[in-house]
Amino acid sequence: MKIKLIRPTADMKQQIMDYRAEFVSNGERVHGSALLGEYETFEEWFADVVKNSSEATVADCWEPSTTLLSVDEDNNIIGMIDIRHRLNDYLLAYGGHIGYSVRKSERRKGYATQMLVQALEICKDMGIEKVLITCAKDNVASAATIRNGGGILENEVYEDDVLMQRYWIDIK
Fold first, then answer.
1. What gap in Å lies between CA 104 and CA 147, rounded to an integer?
2. pTM of the predicted model, to two decimals?
């Protein structure tokens, strides 16, 4: 099944909060979602997503980013993906240009790979020639997705007590 990446809108509130709830109920962090799991209300999260998408209004200590939903042909949310327009010191060390997640009920169907391919095209359109993507070493599925997208492992670094892998994808 094909997916497309779209910007979140206020009228998708219930779908987005249902997506969040699936991660919370499984005890998982919602990666690549502009910290959706950290917000109590949709309104607060959505306001920050909009604010952080612009150079003029991005929060201090953040970099501008584009947060997108991965949806199927019925507009059901399959996953989320963040594209950071540039890297600060933290993103260079641990976070990368792209973060993503796929809801548990939709994993192992190739959606993450489709999301990554589409996100890399967006990065290319933004003028980013080399994309950094990271994942925890024990996240074998994510590492495979990154490698399938052309990722080359540069190194491994610890973020607190989690061993992170840092992959670069050349998209010139």
1. 21
2. 0.94
